[in-house]
User: Fold this.
Amino acid sequence: MFIMALLLIACTSVEKGGQAPSAAGFGPRTSQGEVTIELTPRYVDGLLLVEYGLNTHSIDMSEIDLQEQATLIADGREYKPLERPTLSSHHNSGELRFGVPTMSASFEIIVVGVPDVGERRFAWP
Assistant:
């Protein structure tokens, strides 16, 4: 029992020490508004892969350019998505891919210019 407690403490210390947690450790984040945005990231082999969902009942999202409007901030550096997803209509989902050589446990994704909320910040500690 004592050894199991020590292992649990050691694992917790590594996660808080700045190392990226497992893919399951990056939970989803949601921002409400005329367009609801949900982001769920996972880090794999130098890429931060971010599943996104954008949903609305009132706005045509074809004018939203996530390659220009989304920015990852990690370790004091800014990254843009590697590809430009095409959005349309009222319900969109897909994956943003950011090239990030190393990933820390704390990072932020900022999305600007989506109707009715000028700047949305999604943070993972």
